[in-house]
Amino acid sequence: MKKKLIMALALVLALSMAFATGCSKKETAEETTEETTEETAEETQTEETTEAETEEVAEEEDEENYETGDASLDNARNQNEIGEKELLVASFGTSFNDSRRLTIGAIEGALENALTDYSVRRGFTSQIIIDHVKSRDNVAIDNIGEALDRAEKNGVKTLVVQPTHLMNGFEYNDLVDEIGTRADAFEKVAIGQPLLTSDDDFERVAKALYEATKEYDDGETAICFMGHGTEADSNSVYSKMQEVMDKLGYANYYIGTVEAEPSLEDVMDAVQKGGYKKVVLEPMMVVAGDHANNDMAGDEEDSWKSQLEKAGYEVTCILRGLGEIPEIQQIYVEHAQAAIDSLK
Question: How far is Cα of residue 48 from the mean position of the Cα atoms in its chain?
Answer without folding.
Answer: 15
